[in-house]
Amino acid sequence: MASSTTNYAYVSNSGENTLSIINTESNTIAGTITVGAGPGQLAFTRDGSLLYVSNEDANSISVIDVSNGELITTITLGIGLGPGGIATNPEGTVAYVANQYSNYISIIDIETQVVTGSIPIGFSSFDCQLDASGSLLYATCLDDNFVLTIDPNTHIITNTIPVGITPLLILFNPDGSSCYVTNFSSSNISVIETSTNRVSGTITNDSFSYLTGEVISRDGKYLYVTNTIGDTVSCIDLATQTTVQSIEVGNTPFISAITSDGKFIYVPNLYDNTVSVINTSTNTVIRTIPVGAFPAAIAIYNPLSPSTKGNGISIGGRTSSGNGTYNYTSTTKGSGNGVAITQ
Q1: In CATH, what class is 5-342?
Q2: pTM above 0.85, yes or no
Q3: Rounded distance, CA 120 to CA 104, Å?
Q4: Domains of the chain: which residue ranges?
Q5: Out of 6, 17, 62, 306, which residue is the most buried by the measure of CB atoms under 10 Å away?
Q6: 91-94: which pairs have CB atoms within 8 A and are 24 or more residues apart?
Q7: 81-109 pLDDT, tens digit each
Q8: What is the DSSP string of 133-179?
Q9: CB within 8 A of 121, min separation 6: which ones?
């Protein structure tokens, strides 16, 4: 293992219940970790010592010790079904888990690694993220097309913000003044001003096609979003809200991550079983790395970021129709609906 946590990218292989560990200095596989069934979204604790993995099919969270790459424990979520996005508070004491197939956000005590409660929100949620201060929890409601803000102390919903169709992921800009929501089915991005918690604009572009992952450059000038149809990553100039470049990657790119220095983006390609490495200075792919089956999400620790999420998406209905096309389907599972990409 390298001396720095930031030298590794963790890839959730949803088809074989493992994580691939990529050494980002050499772009080689440094190891493999077995986790629960259907691993998807990933998040680090604030100090980078632990990695949390949402196991959608097992309704559990795998907890990884980053120092040695070992599985510490598996947390069963109980009423939390289809775990998705994970957020940890600034103090590093609590983790919040969005659940796609039940109307709750699960609460985990990081010290004891047990579920201590849940927040009833009334909707299935795909992703949740805390603002930099930890005073508001944002959650996407993929079946109902809005974002909730929740007081994590009182568990009261404080805002219901209409966005696009099938909102998936939430990403804050570096100064925390805005957050960007990828809308899968409407293929656009809702921009929420955090001072008012209202949508200030919608980014649309002809290059967008069923958006999933998103990362932002360290200076906050460029947003990179993955297009699951078209097999590209769109680089967006946030000042003009235009796509400055479409970068060809592998088959069905999903949830990417950016290195702590902002120089490289790692993109998992779901149906290629590979990861594309993009050099952000040239916006070109410099390496393609074989990983496990159906790589869905990547996490890279960034000690400077207010969010320690590794954006991810859990996969439902991994089936092939043999016709080479992709469709959005609403797949019944548990008490809610999930996003499935079928080929």
Answers
A1: mainly beta
A2: yes
A3: 5
A4: 5-342
A5: 62
A6: 91/46, 91/134, 92/45, 92/46, 92/47, 94/152
A7: 999 999 999 999 999 999 999 999 999 99
A8: TSS-EEEEETTTTEEEEE-TTT--EEEEEE-SSSEEEEEE-TTSSEE
A9: 103, 104, 105, 139, 141, 148, 150, 157
